[in-house]
Amino acid sequence: MFYIDDIPEKTECVGNTLSTINIALTSLDSAIQELSSSQYFTFDQVYAFENAIIKYDYDINGDNAFCVLSTNCMFDNISSISDGHAGKFMLHVSPTTGVTVTAWGSQWRFHEDYDTFTWTASAKNLIEYYYYDDVLYAKNMSFSS
């Protein structure tokens, strides 16, 4: 049983809790808006649209991503990345057509020294990278289906 004297105290507690929840939901709305404004990413999955330029933000998306490629594309430099960061892109080519990565951003350096990669339908490739001194050192590994 509550007495009238207790009502303001109980209301303040509920009010503060509701304010905290409101602030948390506002932050969530901002994060969702930021993610949805990216054209190519959904929950760390990359989808390459027609002649897409794939952009990846390390701070937002983390170090690893699964990429579905169904058309030719270009991988841009990774943004918001710092020395010592590393990660992987698992590239899965559409089962209906092969694709070519027509170019890589200026910071990418592959040990094979390739500028482009062409993969057959259903190909699976793992790109490992390590960032140091404004260079994305990378290696491509191909796997059969």
Runs in which pLDDT lies below 50 for 5 or more consecutive residues are: 13-22, 32-43
Mass-distribution shape = globular
**Residues in helix, %:** 10-25%
Lateral strand order in the biggest sheet? 1-2-4-6-10-11-8
Separation of termini? 68 Å
Oligomer state equals: single chain
Major beta-sheet overview: 7 strands, mixed
| Tally of individual helices | 2
Find the structural class using helix and strand composition: alpha/beta
Order of helices and strands: HEEEHEEEEEEEE
Any idea how many domains? 2
Mean pLDDT, rounded to whole units? 74
Structural Rg: 23 Å
What is the β-strand count? 11
Describe this structure in words.
With 145 residues, the chain is an alpha/beta fold. The chain folds into two domains: 4-36; 41-143. 23% of the residues lie in helices and 43% in strands. It contains two helices and eleven strands; from the N terminus they run H-E-E-E-H-E-E-E-E-E-E-E-E. It has helices at residues 7-36, 58-61; strands spanning 41-42, 45-48, 52-57, 64-69, 73-79, 86-93, 99-104, 108-110, 117-119, 124-132, 135-143. Strands 1-2-4-6-10-11-8 form a seven-stranded mixed β-sheet, with no helix packed on it. Strand 10 (124-132) and strand 11 form a beta hairpin. It is globular, with a radius of gyration of 23 Å. The N and C termini lie far apart (68 Å). 18% of the residues are buried. The model is unreliable at 13-22 and 32-43 (pLDDT under 50).
